[in-house]
Design a protein that fits this description.
By secondary structure, the protein is of the alpha/beta class. The chain contains 5 helices and 4 strands, in the order αβαβααββα. About 40% of the residues lie in helices and about 15% in strands.
Length: about 150
């Protein structure tokens, strides 16, 4: 996470403006966490079928639940904090027919800067879904129009 935060700060410094992060699955979960650590350098986060409620219901869930018995209180708090939204605009793209994770695990709670967009499509092909590509392009274009001035 420290390397990612450094890369985000370097890119924001180089371009003179905050950057947008787009992440798929756990990449989106990571992007949310990075935005919490350096919100001044992030314009927006877009997640695609990214789990935020852990452990995620999958065939491996029993293993994760068993491992959770070994976690200490601080680790459990950190895990629960993943669901808290970052202080920047967030678009969460979710799919009921995900097929890999329980779609509810990727749906954030309503909040001021949080937009949830539901699409149809599987977890593994979400990036090639034309509807998802249009949504991502639209949200990134909105960010560009509002952020034409350097930071």
């Amino acid at each position: 996470m420290a390397d990612l935060q450094r890369q985000i700060r370097d890119l924001a410094d180089t371009t003179g403006r905050p950057v947008s992060l787009v992440g798929v699955s756990l990449g989106g979960t990571t992007a949310r966490q990075a935005a919490k650590c350096c919100p001044g350098d992030i314009a927006r986060v877009i997640t695609l079928v990214s789990p935020i409620r852990m452990p995620v219901v999958t065939p491996l869930a029993p293993l994760a639940q068993a491992a959770a018995l070994l976690w200490d209180a601080e680790e459990l708090r950190d895990l629960a904090a993943i669901a808290e939204p970052p202080a920047v605009p967030l678009t969460a793209i979710i799919s009921r027919d995900d097929g890999i994770i329980d779609w509810e695990a990727s749906r954030p709670a309503p909040a001021e800067n949080v937009e949830v967009v539901e699409v149809s499509g599987s977890h593994m092909s979400i990036c090639t879904n034309p509807e998802v590509q249009r949504i991502v392009a639209d949200r990134l274009a909105r960010r560009q129009k509002r952020s034409d001035t350097p930071k």
